[in-house]
Amino acid sequence: MRTYAREVAFSWVYRDIMCNEKGDLDYNLFDQTKLDDDDKIYASTLVNDCMDNIESYRQGISDLSRDFSLDRVFKIDLALLVMAMCELDSKQAPVAVVINETLTLARRFSTDKSVSYINGVLSNYVKQK
């Protein structure tokens, strides 16, 4: 299911950001009964695209975060934003689905204020495109 594939991708993007290195996605750390081959390809592609373009997405987040320094952004929020922006750029899923699923992950893994912040940044990102 694509929802769980996004959660897997988010977890690995967060891991890569925290470790400041790109690592190979290890599916043994996740519930493989929830992932089919297409989901694994989707998650791997998303993680690789995110990390290959991380500096561009960081700059975009910085530009869209008015009066808010990038070093103050929670790493969880940074990972969610990078992943959502990358997924929006790939145009493999509808904009509303990407934003809604990102906000669902933010509600689960971050703070209430972060949900509003992420929603605002992504809304502005979509308007720019």
Order of H and E elements: HHHHHH
**Mean pLDDT over the full residue set:** 94
- Share of helix among residues? over 70%
Number of domains: 1
Number of strands: 0
Beta fraction of the residues?
under 5%
What is the CATH architecture descriptor? Orthogonal Bundle
Terminal residue distance: 28 Å
Q: For this structure, what is the CATH homologous superfamily?
A: NusB-like
From the helix content, strand content and strand pairing, which structural class follows? Answer: mainly alpha
Largest sheet: none
Number of H/I helices: 6
Name the poorly predicted regions: none
- Overall 3D shape: globular
CATH topology: N-utilizing Substance Protein B Homolog, Chain A
Could you tell me the radius of gyration in angstroms?
14 Å
User: Given this structure, which CATH class is correct?
Assistant: Mainly Alpha
Task: Report what the structure shows.
The protein has a single domain, classed as NusB-like (N-utilizing Substance Protein B Homolog, Chain A). Helix 1 packs across helix 4 and helix 4 packs parallel to helix 6. The mean pLDDT is 94. The chain contains 6 helices and no strands. The chain is mainly α and 129 residues long.
Quick synopsis:
The chain contains 6 helices and no strands. The protein is mainly alpha-helical and 129 residues long.
Structure keywords:
single chain; 129 residues; mainly alpha; N-utilizing Substance Protein B Homolog, Chain A; 6 helices; 0% strand
Secondary-structure blueprint of this entry?
Blueprint: H1 2-19, H2 37-52, H3 54-64, H4 75-90, H5 95-109, H6 112-128
Helix pairs in contact: 1-2, 1-4, 2-4, 3-4, 4-5, 4-6, 5-6
